[in-house]
Every structure is written in C-alpha cells, then in structure tokens.
Amino acid sequence: MRISDQPKILPNVPSLKHDIDLLIVRENTEGLYSGIEFMAGKDAAIAVRLITRPACERIARYAFNTAMKRRKKLTYVHKGNILKITDGIFKDSVLKVAEEFPQVEASEARIDAIAMNLIKNPRGMTL
Length: 127
What we know:
By secondary structure, the protein is an alpha+beta fold. Helix content is about 30%, strand content about 20%.
C-alpha cells in the first residue's frame, strides 16, 4: 500500500469537516478478529482476544513508517487501563518499535478519550 505525502479528501465521502488530517491504522488479523470463540453453556458464548508481539510489532512498524511519510507524529491508542495484559503487550511492542523511529513523536491515548474527542473536537485533537 502506498501512503501519499499529502492528505486527501476521498471523493463521494461526505464529511462534516474537510480540513482534518487523520489516518487510522489498525490490526484486524488478531484480537477478536481471530475468530476464537465457543459456547459457555446454553445461553452464553466466549470470544478469545488473541494478541501476539509479532503482530503488534508489525502493525506498529507500519504505523511508524507511515508517520515518517506524513507529519512524523503517531498516537497509539489502547484500552490498557482495562485490558492490562493484552494491551500491555501492544503498548510494549509499540514502544520497542518506537526506538527505531526517533524522528517520530509518539504519544499514547485511551480509546474512550479518542472516540469522544473525534466527535466533540476533531480539529483540536493533538494526535
């Protein structure tokens, strides 16, 4: 995938704000997308969230490489306050990869705060 150096507005995609420069990179081969689930009795089911360091490092490296082609800023978003082990692996992996990219200003944020700010104040976000 080629990442443009210039932000662009996608054609035929309605938007409330046309001057927001935001790119979201996310993993969807692991986590709940791994499809590991089973029934836990008649009326309950359990889904397993699989997280591995190699996949976390792969997505982090892709995000940092992309940030290098853009504004050299990256915010990694997580729910580490609740998912301490799995998001702990993610956060540790991002910080490890960040050492390879000292030019990129990396910061962290919780997903709940990001989701709220994307709606309430997208221009004022410091990503």
